[in-house]
Structures are given as structure tokens and as C-alpha cells.
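Methods: example folding runs. The two proteins below were folded one after another, and each record is reproduced exactly as written to the output file, sequence line first and C-alpha cell line second.
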Amino acid sequence: MNLARTVLITGGNRGIGYSIAQEYVALGHRVAVSARTGQGPKGSLTVIADVTDPESLDRAISEVEAKLGPIEILVANAGITKDTLLMRMSDEEFESVIDTNLNGVFRVIKRASKSMIKAKFGRIVLIGSVVGLLGSAGQVNYSASKSALVGLARSITRELGARGITANVVAPGFINTDMTAELPEAQQLEYKKSIPLGRFAEAEEVAKVVTWLTSDDASYISGAVIPVDGGLGMGH
């Protein structure tokens, strides 16, 4: 039986992050979500934070630990996209995506891992993407930020593994969210043709992999990239 743990999910107010938070709540964990706006699911604590603002993270993590106890599981999910072709992409469009999706992950891990090191226990999951290793035209900023999470997780594994802390990347493919629902039907069909399983994933299918990866069943997995992409990124 897995113990109830204190969990923090960044960007847990919508999409995949919201589903991950719901899954942890359903499993009986003490769950906090950080968000710039909005709320996490029922049964979770929402703290307002922006991963690009170090002071807001300090406040949010202090609040989580004061109310729920030291953070034991961190799911770094907050991310943004600013898609456009390389030749049209401004420096700001590149740098802001890196600042949220990579620098923001570093800032959260650095702060949340203090309690893990003290407790000699921790589970860190970084939400990557199939395009991190497969690549995607029009997404050099996003794919670079997601690819970098692999090196981050593997370096953390080498640095903190002996202290009972694991770090892994979950790399989703196309997920049924508000964003994909807005795509024209012809485009959705085109994308589905490239996915061996022939469909988009449900957010819960990602959430269940994340919660399993932080459970006792997966305690010897670290530095891994777990694809949840219907076979889209095979070989990567």
C-alpha cells in the first residue's frame, strides 16, 4: 500500500495538470497545485505562483509545506507555447518559452527538492513532450525546452539518486484537450494518421502513468523517458 504523500503539481488548473491533480486526489494524497489563475480540482489546495517569478514560488512552496507538510512528490507540468516558423520567431518568443518550460522547471525543483533531500525521499516527474525528441516544424522553442528536460532529469538522478530521489520525464503525444478540440477536423484526421494507435490520448491516460511513476511500484525507475504517445515517437 502506498503511503499518502504531499504532492505539488505546477500548472494544475487545466488540461493535463488538472487531470494529474484529480488522479492524486482520488488516490488519497495531499495535493497542491500552483497556477497563475484559476483553481485546481476539488480536494486540492491551489496556490498562486508563476514559475518565472522566484519570489512567488518561494511564497507558494512555503504555503504548501505549512498547510500540507513537506513536498514529497513534484510534478513539473506548467508550460507555454509560442509556435511559429524559425525565420519568423522573435528572440522574445524563443526566450519566454525557455524561461517558463525549462528555467521555470529548474526554479521549482531547486526549491521543492530541499524537503526531499532532508527526508531522503522524493519523486520528481517532468512533463515533457513527444516533440522534445521527435522535433516539430514551427516549435523550435517548445521542442528545445522539452528536450532539455531529459538532461535535467538524468543529471538530477546522478546527483540525488543516492538520497532516495528519482527524476523521470513523461512525454505525452497528442492529448484530447481544449487546444486539440479547436483544430480543424481535417487537421485532426491528418495527425491521427501519423499515430500508430490512430487516436489522441485522454488526459487521464497521462495522469495514470504519472501517478504510477511516483508510486512504490516504480521506485527503481529514474532518468527514464516514458512516452505516452500512441507510438508516435517510437525509436526516440
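Second run, written to the same file directly after the first:
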Amino acid sequence: MTLWHLSRAIVETARISIPTVAESAVGRVSSDVCDRRLDAWSRRLLEQAQIDLSVHGLERAPADEAFVVMSNHQSLYDIPVVFQALERRVRMVAKEELFRVPVWGRAMRASGFVDVDRKNRERAIQSLARAKTALARGTSIWIAPEGTRSATGTLLPFKKGGFHLALDTGARILPITIVGTRDVLLARGWTVHPGGPVQLHVHAPVDPTEYGMEQKERLIAAVRERIASMLPPALR
């Protein structure tokens, strides 16, 4: 099953990446077309893994509001799950290494995904500026504040970049909790276990303006508490 799922994921990714790269080369990339491709890609990946996805609390996120979305991160399947669950235009902030993947990386950049290079302050500032522009245009920006997938499933310490973005723009933070993707595919794992239930819980948004930069640590704690609240106690 592992080889089959891997090969299908590569095919599905190529299916949306190649035309996106081609369109970007002639300046014809459309956000609406990218949205449709991402929706089809994520839906097919969940279908192939036979994931039974249930979404709770989506009514807490007004459809006409752009958020800084923050979630726990346990598996590569978190990515298609979020795109299927939130029913809005979402783009990720992702590690710079992902943008080096041939074709896929160029397609991500052309589609409006934001790369972050934590080793280069100037490039990190440029990435933050691109994320601000996307928010201003109505695109929600999804960040995993742990910075990486948790190998054990336990919620890791949060990095501050996403909170700076919310504080700088005033965009509300939408905390979400993803449960079950780790049972489908472990972090750093290669074996896909199809047919598992996955839940995504949408929490009440957090307004960063109620905290301000001087209370940033309280803001981080508030968001972390909401994300942790729907995790099993051993993973909080």
C-alpha cells in the first residue's frame, strides 16, 4: 500500500504542478484556478487514503474574513485535510526546503504559498511582507507554529513568526486542532494506513489586538491552549 499511495500522491501533485508552472511562465496564473486545483488535489489524496474527515466548529470562522490559521502538525496529511476542511482560500507558510522540490516548489511559489528561510533574516522579512499582502487581499495564511511535524504527536513549543504576522496586521488568529492524521501517516514515516477517521476542530478566533506586542507571550499561550484542548491529554 505504501508504494501505491506514494506513486498516486506524486501523480496527483504533478497533475496540478505542471500546468501551474507553465502558466506562471507566461504570467497567466489565476488564484481561482489554483484554488480549484488545490481542492481537487487534496480531495483525491484523502479519497485515496480513505480518510473519513469530520469538521467541527467551522461556523466560528466567518467565510468573508481572512485569518492567520494556526494548527498542530502531526503528518503530511495535515495539508490536504486543511484544504478540504476550511472552505476558503488558504495558502501555507512552508519551509524553504519544500520550494527546492523540482516543479512542485515552483508551483507552490506561483500559487501564492509563502516560503520561510529562518537562517536568512532579510528573506524572512520579505516572506512576512508577502504574507501580509496575501492577508490584505483576503487569503488566509496557514502556519504550523511548532515549525515542524511532531515525531511523537506531542504538541511542541511554538515559534513566534506567525504571531508577529497577526500582531503586525491585526488579523485574527484561527486556532484549529487536527486529530488522527498521525494514525494515517507518522511524521517522517513512509507507511500509509488507509481508512482512518480524522477530525478537525475549529476554535473561536483570537484577536491579537487585545494583547499587543507587550503581551505576546500571553497571546501565544492562549492560542496554544485552544489547540491543545482537543488533543488527547498525553499529547498536550
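Comment on the second run: The chain has one domain: 2-235.
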